[in-house]
Task: structure prediction
Amino acid sequence: MSAGQRLRVLVVAPERHALRQPHAGGLEAVVWNRVRWLRRRGHRVDLCAAAGSDFLGSDPDLHLPSPRWHRTHDASDTENPAGHRGRMADAFARVRSRLTDPLDGVDVVDNHSLHGDPILWSRDLGVPVVTTLHTPPLPDMVRAARSLPSSAPHRFLAVSQYTARSWSAEGVDAFVFPNGVDSTEWRRGAGGDHWVWFGRIVPEKAPHLAIRAALLAGARIRIAGRIGDPVYFDREVAPLLGDGAEYVGPLRQPELCALVGASSVALVTPVWSEPFGLVLAEALMTGTPVVAFDAGGAREVLAGLPGCAVVRARDVSALARAAVSLAAESASGTFRDRVRAAASARHSLARRHREVERVLGIAAQTPAALVDEARVAEAVGA
Result:
């Protein structure tokens, strides 16, 4: 992107949760930071997100409907209630109509939605779209991606090599742009004598296995995060609390950073194809070492960094042994300095955002006339 270029960007967020602290999960934290950073850089950024989000203007056309659950225990981070898909289609139709209005035109769409509709805006409207792949392949998004002609001004980014390979197997190729962590907010901590687990409390994140590892090692552990699956929490997590295991609830970033930085080791226990695992980088940024299950992109994110161990997924004994070893090292200030320095060098948010800013700038420079010419050429060739 040329010096001084200012973009008109529409950021499309996932609609399941509002973008605000305490963040519902790593995906929401990533998009929240993206909007904040782009605005600080002087770009005109409109946000399309769930009502109640920070940075969201008063225009109702950009307010996305969150799932409406009739009972708390029906709430899910993966399923949708009846009728939600139709409400989302209507909402995206409103956004799409805005993009055809010259007064509301944007240079580029920065798409983080988990739906296929925004992907198709590049095909149907000729609007440059950059879609970041934050999850394993989703059928709706795969179908939309496969329908794009080569002329569509669209780019896919993936948060890890692991995620890029997963989507490539479905015929969707992406450049790899890993997530980043703000080192000015995730500060080095002094460590402490308890372990920590933080993130979304859902079965695929398996915090109950982290608690079992701590109990096996005779260590105290604190669990922080939003309960994304109440049934799972009541069945698997709640019975393990007490006797050294404490649930402290969802925390805003400053309080969460303080908790993680005052811990001797962080446990990360995905039992699914974790695309990236932002908590890995966040913990390391505080100087707190990490032990993680070998699932999804975890090994890739941690590769070569000090203060890390990766063990076989679901192996609670191996998790406990590795955590005991790293917790002992964590008492050294020099060790924690080294862990933070390496994490900052690899996972700096400023570095990641500068790279994405360049991608958005390049995408925005795709002339509509060239897109039209390419469409004509494809039609003739067909």
Remarks:
- The radius of gyration is 21 Å.
